[in-house]
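Retro notes - structure team

What went well: the batch runner handled both jobs without manual restarts.
What didn't: labels got mixed up in the shared folder, which is why I'm recording both outputs here explicitly, each with its sequence directly above its C-alpha cells.

Job 1
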Amino acid sequence: MLEINRLEKRFGDTEVLKSIDLRVQPGELVFVIGPSGSGKSTMLRCCNRLEEPSAGTILLDGEHVTDCRGAALDRMRLKIGMVFQGFHLYPHKSVLDNVMLAQLRALKRPKAEAKARAMEMLSHVGLAHKADAMPSELSGGQQQRVAIARALALDPKVMLFDEPTSALDPELVGSVLKVMRQLRDEGMTMLVVSHEMGFAREAADRVVFMDGGVVVEAGPPEAIFGNPQSDRLKSFLARVSKAEE
C-alpha cells in the first residue's frame, strides 16, 4: 500500500534520511521506533510531502506521491490521513464542524453527507456525544480522538501517526491507543511513529528501528524486542527499559 524507495532528505548540509527503503502492506500496522533525531518524523512527513524528499520515490497504492504537483498532490494527500502530536483543531469551531470542514472543502461533499460521515466517525472514536462541544471543553485525549475522526472521515487508504500520544497526560494515552487498536483490527493500513513500546509489542505487525537516518533493523515485535541483532538496537532498548523503571 505504501512503498518508500531510497528516500533521502537533507536540510542544507545535514543528511537526515539516508536511502530509506520501507514497504507497508495493505492492512499492516508498522511501528517505527528510535531515538530522537533519528529521522522518524521526517520520513513520515515526506510520505505526504509536508517535507519535500531530496531524492527517492514514494508510492501509495501504486501511484507516485513524489511526482504529484498542484491539484494532483492535494488529491493524493486526501488518501493519506495524518495525525500529529498536536491536535490542530480549529478552536473556534465545534467538534462536529472540525470533522466536517475538510469533507466540505476538499471532497466537496454535500453538507448532509458530510455531517452524517462526521457523526459516524465521531461515534467510531467514542465521541458522538461531544459533537456540539468546543475543543477547549475536551481533554487532550478526546481532542486527539477528534483529530483521528477528522482524518478517517476523508476515507484515507493509509493512516500516518506522528507521536500521537506524546502530548497527552499518561492517564489519557489509553483512550487513543484503544482507537488505534480498533483501526488495526478493522484492517486500516497504518504507519506509526511513537515511543509507546508496550503498544508496539502488542499491536504491531512489524517494528522498524531507525537511528542516524537509516533503518538499522526491522522485523516482527517478538524479534525486535526479544532478540535484537544490532548493538544500536540493544543499546536503545536498554535505555528505554531503564527509563521505564
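Job 2
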Amino acid sequence: MLQAPIGILGGTFDPIHIGHLRPAIEAQAALGLAEVRLVPNHIPPHRASPFCSSEQRLAMVRLAAAENPGFVVDEREIKRDKPSYTIDTLIELRQALPDTPICFLMGMDSLLSLPSWHRWQELLSHAHLVVSQRPGWQPDYPIEVAELLALHRTQDPQDLHRHRHGHIWLADNLPIELSATRLRALLAAGQDPRYLLPPTVASYIQQQGLYQPAP
C-alpha cells in the first residue's frame, strides 16, 4: 500500500523567502502532502556560487522549516562535494522511500527550462512534477515540454496519491513576484524585508550581517 505523498523543494535558498515557501504551503494543502522536504544545495550546477555559505543557508532553511508545520530539512545535497543534480537526489529518495509518491515542487520557469536539465527525461521515472504557475498564464512551451505535458499531465490530484511517480500537475498559485536576487538587492539597499521572508530568517540575516550594503 502506498504512503501519503511527500513534497520535495530544492534550491540555493540564498536566502529562503516567501516566493519559495508560499507555493510549497499551497501544494501541501492542495495535495495533502505528508511533509515538505526543503533541500538546500551545496554547489548549484546551473548558477554562480551563492553569496552565503552552505552553513548559513542551511541555518536559514532550518529556521524557515521550524515555522511551517510539516516542513522538514533534508541535508543530503548540502553534504555533497560536487554539483547537485535533481535526478541524483530523486534516485536516492526513491530508493529510500519505495512506497511513497514523491512530488518534486518547481516553478513554471523551471519547467520551461527543463530540457536543459541533466538527464531531465528520467525525472518522471522517480517522481511527479508539481508546477507552480500564475493563474490564467498560458506559457509558450518548448516542444519537448509540450510533448511531456501531453503524455503526463493530470488534473486529478488523486493521481499523485495513486501512483509513485509519472504525473505532472499544474498548480494555480497566488502570484508572488519575488526572487532571491531582488531580495538581496533590497537588503543591500538597507530596506526593510518585513513580510518577504520568515521573521526568524530576517533576524538571522541581521544578526549575521548578511547581504549588507557595500562599505
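One thing worth noting from job 2: The radius of gyration is 17 Å.
We'll revisit the folder naming next retro.
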